[in-house]
Amino acid sequence: MSSTDFSSQNGAGGPPYANVKEQHALNPGPSQNPVALQPPGPGYMAHQTPYNPMQAKGAMPPGPGLYNSGPYQPIPPVSSNQALPGQPMLKRPPMGPQHSMTPPQSASPGPGSRMPPAHATPPPVSANNYQHAPAWQYGGTPPMGAPPSMGAPPPMAVPPLRPVGNHITSSPSLATPQATSAEYHATPSVFHNATQPLGPPTSLQGYTQQGHMPTPGNGAQVPNSFDHLEMGPTMAGPLPPQQPGPPTRHMGLSYPSLPPGYQNTSAPPNAATMQHPMQPLTQPYTHPQPYQQPSAGPAQLSPSLSGLSLQSQTPEALRVVNLLQERSLLPPGPVTPPTPCLSQDLQKINCHPEVFRSTLTSIPQTQSLLNKAKLPLGLLLHPFKDLSQLPVVTSSTIVRCRSCRTYINPFVTFLDQRRWKCNLCYRVNDVPEEFMYNPVSRSYGEPHKRPEVQNATLEFIAPSEYMLRPPQPAVYLIVLDVSHNAVETGYLDVVCQSLLENINALPGDSRTKIGFITFDSTIHFYNLQEGLSQPQMLVVSDIEDIFLPTPDSLLVNLNECKELVQDLLKSLPQMFGKTMETQCALGPALQAAFKLLSATGGRVSVFQTQLPSLGVGALKSREDPNQRASAKDIQHLSPATDFYKKLALDCSGQQVAVDLFLLSSQYCDLASLGCISRYSAGSVYYYPSYHQQHNPAGVECFQKDLKRYLTRKIGFEAVMRIRCSKGLSIHTFHGNFFVRSTDLLSLPNVNPDAGFAVQMSIEENLVDMQSVSFQAALLYTSSKGERRIRVHTMCLPVVNSLSDIFAGADVQAITCLLASMAVDRSVTASLSDARDAMTNASIDSLTSFRTSVLTIQQPGLLAPACLRLFPLYILALLKQKAFRTGTSTRLDDRVFAMCQLKYQPLAYVMLMIHPALYRVDDLTDEGALNISERTIPQPRVQQLSVEKLSRDGAFLMDAGSVIYLWIGRNCNPNFLTQVLGLPNYAAVPLNMNMLPELDTAESQRTRAFVGWLREQRPFFPILHVIRDESPLKASFLQNMIEDRTESALSYYEFLLHVQQQISK
Ligand SMILES: [Zn+2]
To answer: How far apart are CA 405 and CA 230, in angstroms?
Structure first.
């Protein structure tokens, strides 16, 4: 199917899908950094024809009836977390002159929708009443021009002073390893650099050494161009003569006779278990080896790639599945990502899919080929994930490509010992002298065995070139709602208690600072200056023009003032115990927080319990509960005011991130409030119906989340840049951040629980390339005041046939990327438009498979095995809280689900979309995992259908942030007594949230399983024990995705619908 077919087939397109190129670079205001971005290197110049996967097609006026409130107004995309040029709410000048604007592409779905209105009763599926309407285009938008160049690079603040020394420490992660770290179980290893030919020995713990750093300080008024810094220090001089050109088949020919690299490491495991690049520093460094270099050259490609065609041998991924006949499609355990079709040597060292993943593990050679596949191309990242083992490199020289600034990585090519070829821009670079020494093997002349070339994920301690001001200290500011409503929920006790318990576990060092602000109708500051006998409260009642009463004593050194801080935490809950103040001036409190932290940067933690009612940022309720179920489309998904976004951008410019904890029983307009976190790279936590007495499960959840939040790793003043091989480009980012330039995200804080997604396009044909690479570099300041760079590099093969593209499709990554895109579409266009687009995504890709890949036509709804779950996942998305219609979904609940889809890492997003259902009344040790002497049963994953429930059993549903345990009416009495400690079914309480600790094998197994599920995520899922009469039974049943509900199709009906559209 050609792209014109796609266009005509889909008729009129919807509004632009939030995927303009990232051109709205925020020019740092004059108070910030006068300096700006360097012109990107050659690898980043090629942005002529941005690929635009989800853009709707033609530009047409809205169809009648599709927008049921007011005139249609094109809204620039907000997904990219850019400034919103043209946003109607804009009341003050934009922050800089650099806002380029996407031409509004007003468009609308065509006259008919491909999906029946979801709030209506599903019509008979046989009725041929679906029109092919708007789709998500996998095509391009007009180019937006080259990234702005905003001035000359600044002089380097400090010349490199660092003593030369190489040490590689493999440091265990500071934070609790995730349960999944079972896969990273490589023995923690520390490589001591005993003999260093190039300099005096330095600390073995690379990160304990700070002597080279400028004296840490507050950093006030220091130019702060972190985006520039990530570009690195060596751009100053003219580049030496370039040896450009696309990669040729000469890659690696200098050593044609050498065996593939890493041969004499441990025997390659089979493909299924070969995804452990986090086990890098095991054997390879211990023995001198002949010069070897894994090459992406043609000779090294896996045989399966060249032989991949349907004619010769069909790989399992392309096995044709008739979805209408095969109903048991779920694997018994977790769905595993596909393994890229690379040589074993390359794949073994490739980035772990939990950290870095592509929707297509085989990259199409051309954009037109990608367009034909009708699959989105994008990356999913979890860049700051807690790792149980992370190689850390301290080196006076961080070796990077002189041209595109790529960090040297396992996928570069060594032409000889003195030259390496960049795998992103293909420039040939010199190997620095220092790099010739391998501190691990303590040998000379083996640059290819350096840890930088052996690990797809590693961290550098950055020398002083990577900072323009002294690394900031860890700074924490707690902002607490103390209005009557807030006090009534009892949350203050939990926050203060948790802070008291974890005060010594806050990440930081001797410089760590802390401060507190409370607010109701006024703003209260706390003087915690050393020497005071008790904390001093200072009330500012002029909320119109907020000022700091004693600027120097509100943010204090935690170590020096710990007693005063503890005194304050002990007395805070009582201080407002009798308050009758109902008003709440959140906006002014946030302004105060910004003022307080703008000199240093840091983290603001805001606890809010109601709709802000006073001062700037005051909001009015926009939700009419009576309209929830009946509204034709969902209104008010976009912010009511731009105050929170503007303040967030101010915060971002000063390296301040705001995390929002919303504890509420009523509508709080999360769509507006959430902007404060979204654009400042913060996190949003939401606890609906929070109350100390009435909702003990919610309290436990809040306590656990808070502990993780306070003690987890944190990075300050961070930027992340994603580079990709020449010919590819990034055009849309998803997550919480601000896009500072084409490929650079500003992250005032980065936390280990944040995920990101990006959409990519192919701008130049990748002909002659065997593989392409992607590199994410996260430059941040650790809580100990070090500049560090975490680098992830992923290599993927390039293919030139549709069947190869399909064979490498990663259905979970595709689903998660589509979910992010659909959130944007819901906000910029409408929910129904987003729903149509998701449905069309499955129809179009399966149509493409049928018409372009299958050689033998056969009846049925045919999918390649690797995409067999795609229609199921799409249906699951349509029924997900974020996108569903027809049920009474609270607006804040919906908006929160959308937030989660955008910034959670893939594994958790997938559980939100398609929960895992297990039968648990008959758990056995068969096939169980053994983790630290605990036996964890591994029951089979069941289809999400009431058919699968049996009245004599008990079933556990893991939906990510909530776990349901459904007890059948005739449940095995043994389970009731041995696991629940209850005599019979009737005794199951309506609100039961924990499993008793019984000394029975059944109890231990069940608790081990639930505990293991919980350990695998950074948040705490509430457990609800459900019986027929339970109020939450409806929520449980709503997750039965395969079943028909009054407002949505069953899975089988959905398949029939998809089939019908395909055969049109
Ligand atoms: Zn390069």
So the answer is: 9
